[in-house]
Amino acid sequence: MEYVEVQGARVPKLGLGTWQLEGDECRRIVEAAIGMGYRHIDTAQAYENEAKVGAAIAASGVDRDELWVTTKVWMDNAAADAVVKSTHDSLRRLGLDHVDLLLIHWPSQEVPLSETLGAMEKLVRSGEARYIGVSNFTPSLLEESLELAALQCVQVEHHPYLAQDRIRQMAERHELMLTAYSPLARGEVNDDDTLKAIGEETGKTPAQVTLRWLTQHRNVAAIPKSSSKEHLKANLEVFDFELDAGQANRIAKLAEGKRLIDPDFAPQWER
Question: What angle do CA 145, 260, 111 make, to 5 degrees?
């Protein structure tokens, strides 16, 4: 395993995303992932699976200090009091006394950013969150956030078809972790001729090539979701090879601004 090391944090570069994992399947997959060696788990209030994630963590027997657990504050909870209350609820569901990273899930159009981030910083001071960050923020919103609070992470959709060069460069400049969600473009990478060709060159699958392309960046972590133990295992096997510059450039040329997650409440995305 390789790690993102920023601001005193040491975060596994390959984690498990849990969006759309529900009920007993969620618990089974998270527990299996931890058993395979995953130590970075990403959930959110909006996923409605924090209790199952927490049950899997408890059942795993792994020391809490070995895990990096992220959850996210939903937009409806952006007001200061709601940030605190909803995070306490998240901790109760997770069965934890703190999360390693607390993110704003999506920017709110109703509550000032300063209010939300101020409440999150209080949770850092109380020890209930080790670090805070933002998710689904544009470069200008990220810049505004950095002027208001000490952030550790920005999480965005990032895969070969959606370049995030501006955000990644900002993250590097400000010593932030960039967490790539939907890194396999909901499975689209598996049918990509370029990625298949590079997979043949490296003896890896298109998904493994994609995850390596992302994690070769110093400060990038990726959190693919999987409901298959076979895929969970394969996703971990991406740190025993390197893509050369030519291969990385071929992947970078696949970018076409293709955004898979774009709800009505999303911010106005910037080019």
Answer: 30
Domains and CATH numbers, the chain: 10-187+220-240 (3.20.20.100)
The size of the chain, in residues, is 271
Smallest CA-to-CA distance from 57 within 88, 20, 32 is with 32
The DSSP 8-state label assigned to residue 230 in this structure reads H
Of 78, 120, 69, 123, the residue nearest 99 (C-alpha): 69
17: left (phi over 0), alpha (psi -120 to 50) or beta: beta
Residues 137-167 have pLDDT tens digits of: 999 999 999 999 999 999 999 999 999 999 9
Measuring CA to CA, how many Å separate 153 from each of 92, 101, 146, 267?
23, 8, 10, 18
Active site residues: 47
**What whole-number distance in Å separates Cα of residue 24 and Cα of residue 184?**
24
What average pLDDT does range 189-212 have in this prediction? 98
How far apart CA 180 and CA 42 sit, in angstroms, is 11
Tokens in use for 80?
A: 């200061």
pLDDT tens track for 216-233: 999 999 999 999 999 999
